[in-house]
Here is the input.
Amino acid sequence: MEYRRLGQSGLMVPALTLGTGTFGGGNDLFKPWGNTDVVGAIRLVDVCLEAGLTMFDSADVYSGGTAESILGAAIKGRRDKVLISTKATFRHGQGPNDVGSSRFALIRAVEAALKRLNTDYIDLFQLHGFDALTPQEETLRSLDDLVTAGKIRYIGCSNFSGWHLMKSLAVSDRERLVRHVAHQAYYSLLGRDYEWELMPLALDQNIGTVVWSPLGWGRLSGRYRRSHPIDHTSRAVQNGDSAPPVSDDRLYAVMDVLDAIAADTGKTVPQIALNWVLSRPTVATVIIGARTETQLRENFGALGWTLTPDQFAALDKASRPALPYPYWHQSGFARNPTPV
Here is the structure.
C-alpha cells in the first residue's frame, strides 16, 4: 500500500481509505448503499489490514450513527493499527442544537462519536459541511480545544466551497488555532468541478484532499455503457438531487475511453477510474466503498501502475467539462496557469 502525507501535517495516510457508508443500512438513504453487519465489517477490516489499508472513514449521519458503532466493534483490539476519520455537522436529531458546528454541537458530537467508535480519540475529525450561522472563530476554537484535550488528532472539512475553506484557514492563522489539513471532496472523471477552485486552493494552502465517490456515484462501476444504458432507478441516480447530475452522453463518452484503456491494460473500468483520481494533484487518499470482500480486493488493483500520457489525454478530453466564468477567462492568461 502506498502512503501519502496528509496536507501540511506529518500524518501519513494510505492511498485508499475504506468508507463505512455501507455499514448498517439503518435508514432509507443508506439501505441501498449496503447493510454490512459487525461480522461482515470485521472481515472487511481484516482484508484491509492485510493489504496495508489502515484508514476508515465514517460520519455520525451514516445510518444514524450505526456505521460508527459497527466500525468501533470491527476494530476492537486493534485500535493502534488503524486511523479513524469521521465527520459531523449535518442534522442528526430533532433538537434545535442537533445540527451545525457550534461549540455546543461539536463537543457533543465528538463525545458521542467516541462512545460509538469505542475509542479515546479520533485521528481525523471533519466538518461535514459549512455552517454559515456559526462564527468560524467559535467553530475553530472548539476544534482547537478538542485537539488540546487529546480527543481529536487532526481536523479537516468536507464539501466546503473555496471561500468557505479559505475563510476558515484565515481565521485559524489569525487566531493561531488548529488548521484544516484535509478537505473531503467529491471528485471523479464525471465530477471535475473540484479542479476549478478547490484544487488550486489546496495546492496553495497545502491541503490534502480526501476524495469521496471516485466512481461518480456508481456510474463508473462498469455496469453502464451505450449498449447497456444507465438504469435511472438504480443507486447511481435514485437519490435524486443528492446525486451529482451527469448527462448520459458524457457518461458514455468517458466509458468509451475507459473501455479502450481496459482492453489495452487488462485493468477493470473501476480500477482505471480510481487510478486516474489517485494520480491527480492534491489527492492524499481516495475513499472506496465495498459491500463484499471481492469488491474490496478489486479496488486494490487501482494501485501499483500508471496511465500513459496518451491515456491521460484521452480521458481528459472525454471528461473535461466546459469551464464557467471566470475560469474560462483565467485559463487564457499564462501567468495564471491551471494546476491540471
